[in-house]
Design brief:
Elements lengths: L3 E5 L2 E4 L2 H11 L4 E4 L12 E6 L1 H9 L4 E4 L8 H15 L3 E4 L7 E4 L10 E5 L8 H13 L3 E8 L4 E7 L5
Parallel strand pairs: 1-5, 8-9
Antiparallel strand pairs: 1-2, 2-4, 3-4, 6-7, 7-8, 9-10
Helix pairs in contact: 2-3
Length: 175
Amino acid sequence: MKPKLRCASGQVMVTCADDVLWLRTKHRIVGSLEGSHPANPLQNNYFGLPLFLMPEETALLIERDAICIEGDKFEWPQSERDQLRFKLFKDLHGRGFFVTQGIKFGGEYLLYPGDPLRYHSSHIVSLVDHGQTVAARELITLGRVCTAVNKTRLLSSWNPHTDHITHITLNWSGF
């Protein structure tokens, strides 16, 4: 039986711990725990249910017919940028990575080689428009951020002519 997830104001949440475990183990869907911990609701180090899903995670699960959504209608992607993000997410997820939000490191996503509870992220993913010139100063900035947090930058671009995503890794190394 497919899990029933709740959609409110465009955000999809999981409220059942068994469903969280099933999504993580069977589909490599991580989401973000946002609820307060019942034993200590004023702390902010550990969060509990509900688990909120990224729109990309929800869209992938809908595409796989793996979930049912109750409440508001889930409508995503809404823009061309959303469509590109979804293509990128599907590509990375299809390569076996666990994929989470990368905003805290200035990227679209963070890639994990295994479950984020057991592994550190290895890459910060940035989505670059096809044919866009990236200034040298920006490349240096992207490289330095990754070096500071011990990660590799993955510059990803969707080519509309070939309908494929190209990835380039960027590592900063001193001489």
